[in-house]
Amino acid sequence: MVHHQQVRFLDRTTPPHIGTLILLIGVPALSMNVFLPSLPGMTAYFETEYSVMQLSVSLYLAVSAVLQLLVGPIADRMGRRPVILWGFGGFLLATLGCLLAPTAEIFLTFRMAQAVIVVGMVLSRAVVRDMVPQDEAASMIGWITMGMALVPMAAPVLGGLLDQVFGWKANFLIQLLLGAAVLGLAWADLGETAHRTSASFAQQIREYPELLGSRRFWGYALAAAFASGAFFAYLGGAPYVGSEIFGLTPAMLGIYFGAPAVGYGIGNGLSGHYSARFGINTMILAGAWLTLAGLLVSVLLFALGFESPLVFFGFMTFVGIGNGLILPNATSGLLSVRPHLAGTASGLGGAVMIGGGAALSATAGSLLTPERGAWPLLWLMVGTSALALLCIIYVKRRERQIGAV
After folding, report:
1. How do residues 292-323 score in pLDDT, each as one tens digit?
2. DSSP 227
3. Portion of the chain with pLDDT greater than 70, in percent
4. How much is the mean pLDDT over the chain?
5. How many whole angstroms separate alpha carbon 55 and alpha carbon 132?
């Protein structure tokens, strides 16, 4: 049951301030890619191959996906506050290990351990659902996750500047400092919001079938996964399209590449303003239609011979807007299917999104060749967007059949 409770900033006897929740998501988003400009320097420092250092991305995502399956049940049993505090503490130790690692193997071990910071991403959403009803939660999640659009775009720029001035270790030092600051803020402001269950961890894991058997949970989870999958496919294929197909310089590619992030910010803003008014299903449906329509117009223009960076990247703004409308609302929906399992649902839903997104990102990269141009990526994104639309149509039809809210 959701209870409205007054929020007082820096009073851990009350629920956390929205600014604290934004920062709990911001640090994991920063940690994911702030160091990417440093990979060449790190490769030289550890005297290894570039492909080895690239594992710092894929292994991190893989561990994050697994941890999301475990974090939710643990937090449903122990509460949100202790899991977040211990998770951030573990992140600080892992980051210190990255800074002091003498070999690439030890560095990668600590880099995988850094994935424990995913607790901030998973549980901030669960905290919101603890605090407010479903439609209001979608609005609040929309504001919180807007930081996930801005931070990943700004982080590599920050990382590149830090690397140029201070070297690659500065990117991990900034993670250490920000992680410590947010840990202190969470300690002071993050009041417990969950009604802890008396079930053991094993019993919590056994409750997964309750979610797995819910058609509405899968409808929301897959709508979010396919929608975000289009964006992950873009991440995997757009750099190749920009540099190899259109011959863009790195500077120009960076400018064009941010188009979905602009759209994502717009979509999240719309979710924040209108989800409580129109309901989550209407917002998800609108986002799915916008995404698919924008991509189909791009395909049509390409077929008519208007193949240009402006057309390709410009219409990717619709992917960002669609994700901004779909993700916070679908997340609120999957958290609301079984409110007493909100943490478990957040973790399972997140794992589905990250795991599917990583697979689509790799698929996009493998399909692209100079001869095929941007077509494989466009059709892959059209396909995943169409599947997201079908998922939310199914949820709405299911809602009419059973009279669910």
Report:
1. 999 999 999 999 999 999 999 999 999 989 99
2. H
3. 84
4. 82
5. 39
Q: How far apart are CA 368 and CA 302, in angstroms?
A: 16
Q: Are 115 and 64 in contact (CB under 8 A)?
A: yes
Structure tokens that stand for 57 in this block = 């991305």
CB within 8 Å of 338: residues ≥ 6 apart: 210, 211, 214, 217, 344, 345
More confident of the two residues 284 and 352: 284
Q: 91 — phi, psi (to 5°)?
A: -60, -40
What average pLDDT does this structure show over 130-151? 68
Question: Residue 337 corresponds to which tokens in the numbers above?
Answer: 């299917």
Residues 321 and 184: their CA atoms lie apart, in Å, by: 34
Type of residue numbered 109: T
In 10 A of CB 157, how many CB atoms? 12
| C-alpha–C-alpha distance, residues 73 and 329, integer Å | 22
Q: Would you call 95 helix, strand, or coil by DSSP?
A: helix
**Does the pLDDT at position 57 exceed 60?**
yes
- The answer to whether 1-189+201-206 and 207-405 have equal CATH topology is yes
Q: Please give the model's pTM, rounded to 2 decimal places.
A: 0.70
Question: Can you tell me the mean pLDDT for 76-105?
Answer: 93
| 207-405 CATH | 1.20.1250.20
Candidates 139, 118, 8, 132; CA nearest to 63 is: 118
Q: Is 2.70.70.10 the CATH classification of the domain at 1-189+201-206?
A: no
Cα 131 to Cα 152: distance, rounded to the nearest angstrom = 27
CB contact burial 78-106 (16+ within 10 A = b; e otherwise): bbbbebbeebbebbbebbbbbbebeebee
Q: Are 332 and 349 in contact (CB under 8 A)?
A: no
Q: Does residue 381 surpass a pLDDT of 50?
A: yes
